[in-house]
Design brief:
Radius of gyration: 22 Å
Largest sheet: 8 strands, mixed
Strand content: 5-15%
Distance between the termini: 41 Å
Shape: globular
Number of helices: 13
Length: 364
C-alpha cells in the first residue's frame, strides 16, 4: 500500500514460495557480496523504472502458493472460523459473508464497469498518522463547485495533518441514462422515497460508493469519508483527552459505519453503548463518517441504489425493518450481513460552506 520494497536477509528458501510474486522483494542472498547488494540497492533507490518493476506484482494475479497462504494462515484463523459459522447459519445463501468474495460476485457487471472508471490513485497513498485510526481520507467533490476544494484541503490538513484524496468522478453532467438505470432501481425508489432519485443525487451516491469500491480494491481497513462541505468541530484528533480518541477507543471492532456529522438539531442516538457511542442503525447525515472494510462490502451489497446516500445507509442497516418493501414482494432487499451503524456523541462535524454559512445543529 505504501509502495515499499522489502529487503530480506537470511535463508530465502523459507520465503520464496510464499511471495505474491518472485520480484516483490529483494533477497540479499541473491548477491555474491554485500557490496554487490549495496550497489543494487543504491541503483534501485535512484531508478524509478527499476523500483516499479518490483511493485508490478500489485497489478498481477497472486501466485497460487501465496493465495493459499493468505487464505489459510494463523493470521486469518479467526476469520476462517467466522466464515465457517456463517456457512452454518446461512447455508446456500447469497447473504452468507465471505471476505474473499470478489467485486464481480458482489455487484452487477454494469456497476463494476461504472465504478471501475474512477481515477483515484493506484498507489502511493498519502501517509496518515496511525493514531487517527483510519488509512485514508476520501472526499466526495462536485467539481463545478471549485471553491470548495482548496477549503477542504485546508480543513483536513489543519485538523488531521493529512492530504485528502478527492473523488471527482461521476459528476451529474457526465452520467448517462444507462448509468443511472444500472446503478439504481426506480421502482424501489418510488416505494421508498415516493419519487425517482435525481441525477445529482445519483452522482453523489455514486461518489460515496466509489469510496467503498476503492477500499476493497486497495484493502483499506478503515477510511474517513467526507463530503465537500464538511467541517470539523474539534481541532485535535490526536490527543488522548479529546473526543475522537475516546470515540475510537470505545468503537466496537465489528462496526460497519460510524456517523460523525450532525444534521440540524437531530440526535438519532439509538442504543447507548458507551458515553460516546450509540448503536443507531440509521444515518444522521453522511457528510462525515468512518467506514470499515466490512462496512464497504456491506454497503456494496445494498445496491442497487434505492435512495440518496443517507437513506441508502438506513436501508442497508434494515432500519425499521424496511417496511416499505412490503409494496414490492419480488424485491430481494439489502444483502447485508450483521451490519452495525453507530453514531458518535457528540458529533464531530457539521456542514459549513466556504463562505461560512453554517448548519443549524446545536449541542444539546
Amino acid at each position: 500500500k505504501m509502495g515499499t520494497v522489502p529487503i530480506v536477509m537470511g535463508n530465502s528458501s523459507l520465503y520464496r514460495r510464499h511471495l505474491p510474486d518472485p520480484q516483490s522483494v529483494v533477497f540479499l542472498d541473491d548477491f555474491n557480496t554485500y557490496e554487490a547488494a549495496a550497489t543494487y540497492l543504491r541503483t534501485l533507490a535512484q531508478n524509478s523504472s527499476l523500483w516499479e518493476k518490483h511493485l508490478a506484482w500489485k497489478e498481477r494475479a497472486f501466485s497460487d502458493d501465496f493465495s493459499t497462504l493468505a487464505s489459510h494462515s494463523f493470521a486469518t484463523l479467526p476469520c476462517d472460523l467466522c466464515d465457517k459459522y456463517a456457512e452454518e447459519v446461512f447455508p446456500n445463501s447469497k447473504c452468507a459473508w465471505d471476505r474473499n468474495l470478489g467485486l464481480s460476485e458482489i455487484l452487477d457487471p454494469c456497476v463494476v464497469e461504472i465504478l471501475s472508471r474512477h481515477t483515484l490513485p493506484n498507489d502511493n497513498l498519502p501517509l496518515v498518522n496511525p493514531a487517527l485510526g483510519f488509512d485514508a481520507v476520501l472526499i466526495t467533490h462536485y467539481t463545478p463547485l471549485r471553491v470548495r476544494k482548496p477549503v477542504m484541503i485546508e480543513r483536513v490538513r489543519q485538523t488531521l495533518g493529512v492530504d485528502p484524496i478527492f473523488i471527482e468522478d461521476f459528476d451529474r453532467e457526465v452520467l448517462t441514462d444507462e448509468d443511472v438505470k444500472c446503478f439504481g432501481n426506480a421502482e424501489a425508489q418510488m416505494a421508498y422515497i415516493q419519487r425517482v432519485a435525481q441525477k445529482g443525487e445519483v452522482s453523489l451516491t455514486m461518489k460515496h460508493f466509489t469510496a467503498y469500491y476503492y477500499m476493497i480494491q486497495h484493502s483499506l481497513d478503515n477510511v474517513l469519508v467526507l463530503e465537500d462541505d464538511a467541517a470539523f468541530l474539534q481541532a485535535d484528533w490526536i490527543s488522548k483527552d479529546y473526543d475522537w480518541q475516546k470515540i475510537l477507543k470505545d468503537l466496537p471492532a465489528s462496526y460497519d459505519l460510524l456517523i460523525l456529522s450532525a444534521f440540524g438539531n437531530v440526535h438519532n442516538r439509538g442504543e447507548k453503548i458507551t458515553e460516546h457511542i450509540y448503536l443507531a442503525q440509521q444515518s444522521r447525515v453522511a457528510s462525515m463518517y468512518m467506514i470499515s472494510q466490512k462496512g464497504a462490502r456491506n454497503m456494496l451489497r445494498s445496491l442497487p441504489m434505492v435512495s440518496v446516500i443517507d437513506f441508502q445507509m438506513n436501508y442497508a442497516a434494515n432500519h425499521k425493518g424496511n417496511q416499505w418493501m412490503d409494496q414490492l414482494p419480488g424485491f430481494h432487499g439489502p444483502r447485508t450481513v450483521n451490519i452495525e451503524l453507530y453514531h458518535s456523541e457528540p458529533p464531530q462535524s457539521k456542514q459549513i460552506e466556504p463562505d461560512g454559512h453554517k448548519s443549524t445543529w446545536k449541542p444539546e
